[in-house]
Design brief:
Elements: H1 2-18, H2 22-33, H3 38-43, H4 54-88, H5 107-121, E1 125-126, E2 132-133, H6 135-138, E3 164-165, H7 170-179, E4 185-194, E5 206-216, H8 221-236, E6 242-249, E7 252-262, E8 270-280, H9 282-292, E9 303-310, H10 311-319, H11 332-335
Parallel strand pairs: 1-4
Antiparallel strand pairs: 2-3, 4-5, 5-9, 6-7, 7-8, 8-9
Length: 339
Amino acid sequence: MTEELAAIQTEALTAIAAAHDDRTLDEARVTFLGKKGRLTVASSCMKDLPKEEKPAMGQALNETRQTITAALENKTEELQSQADAKLLAGIDLTMPGYCLPAGGLHPLTLIRDRAIQILRRLGFSLAEGPEIETEFHCFDALNTPADHPARNEKDTFYFDSGKLLRTHTSSVQIRTMEKAKQMPIRIIAPGSAYRRDEIDATHLSVFNQLEGLYVDKDVRLSDLKGTLEYFFQSLFGEKTEIRFRPHFFPFTEPSFEIDIKLHVKGHEPKWIEVAGCGMVDPAVFSSMSLRRGDETLLPEKVTGFAFGMGLDRLAMIEWGIRDIRRLIENDTRFLSQFA
């Protein structure tokens, strides 16, 4: 058997040396070390040897296997080196390299992260919810009547199942109030929203919102105004011009829209709407109390404020972008400014 092992080793080393690519090298490996390879077959004969010969023969088998394995590894490195040299043939390694452009975050990501950081400092925590919503979470729970224009198929993306793409991230506020175990509730919910809006310089059909909700025993309108003024001045600077305009939303009373003056070099400053806000309507708390089946959110016990802002509009103000469509065109010439 010793002579057989020597012959196997000699033939294996010859086949490995003659291998000219990965395929022929793998064929040599299978021939000698595979499950039905010659060395494997020889190993199976160990059981027929006398007991006193097995230690020496076992050592010889291991040495033969190690020698063949080492030859395979060396040949693999040799073939790889040859392949690398072939790829580099004709390349002048002394030439200077090309400077690759630096990557960067999208402006919407930048403004979202900064907004979250500011609101987290005020004690708000992050919350999230599904983008495919029920009418209850998107409209009914928010005191939106059945004939409200937002519920029309011309304004909202509905599925055959009756569900819809959420028109705002206010639905996350409802889902949070459904599950809240104690007061206060203080959350923000960034995410995508969908409406059948005509796409123009200030509107998109898919846009990014950041909603906020604060509910406790004695939340006042002054808390809402102070929070949002602090937020916008922290985001855009202390001299930022902000105005609150009375408005109507089904789920807040009183309600306001917030405008910020947009400054673009070479153009007259103009007011641009960036957010809606207000004190949570008692009808919303009543609906939540019935839904929960307890008294945690009875309007006699709690008050709160809510707000929702368009992150796309905030990006326009921050960098003086006149056309919101720039943010979705993926034009690297435009986006490279923010890298």
